[in-house]
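Researcher: Next entry in the queue.
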Amino acid sequence: MASTSDIRNGLCIKYNHDIYKIIEFLHVKPGKGPAFVRTKLKSVTTGKVIDNTFSAGHKIDDVRVETHKFQYLYAEGDTYHFMNTEDYNQITLQKSTLDAPGLLKEGEVVTVIINSEDQMPLSVEMPASVILEVTATEPGVKGNTATNATKPATVETGAEVMVPLFINEGDKIKIETEKGTYKERIKE
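Model: Structure for this entry, 188 residues:
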């Protein structure tokens, strides 16, 4: 058993007969009344995100988890195939357990969180950022850069990302996986 003081991003808890992963939290101490913790919980079984408020000192039922490095192999419809980098065992996961499936490139190494009790994979943590090549985007117009203007670009995985006007097809860009946003252009 844990309490609200143990809440952190990535913590898996049992709540409402399901297992949820905390994706966002905020400790709030109002001037009047008791403190509380406002959280965003993502169901590891359905992928649904809910908001919940825990009062300070509330007991939460945490789930013991292990983390393992897995390499992404390929996707087959909504099923994604991964291989453990230590013992080469393969697992399949549904698209709903992935945070950013559109940014997942073949060969990418991710961290899979596994429930220690029943060895069921709960969720997949992507690296903080990924480097992908732009496969399609419209050319930028010169002189149209007075403001932070952006345009849509399709990357090699098929995901669409808003990028600055100076990005061209063939450029490699760094993308922040948590928000799916452009970070910087990578020069080789």
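Model: The CA atoms of residues 74 and 143 lie 42 Å apart.
Researcher: Noted, moving on.
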